[in-house]
Amino acid sequence: MSLGLLLSDESGRIDESDVALLSIVRRMNEILRDVGLRMIMGGSRVMNLQDVLYRMLK
Fold first, then answer.
1. Neighbours of 56 (CB within 10 A)
2. Of 3, 19, 21, 22, which is least surrounded by CB within 10 A?
3. What is the C-alpha end-to-end distance of the chain, expressed in Å?
């Protein structure tokens, strides 16, 4: 999911000053990096981080 999509308000303008949303996005990126690294190190046959992100936001 795009950072701009998460941070945009009703009018479509991006508010980059929202500390809570920025923290959430930063944490989601940390989790995706960790999951990706574990998938690589564990020899996962499925390497679809987009699906992991979708499931996190579901």
1. 12
2. 19
3. 12
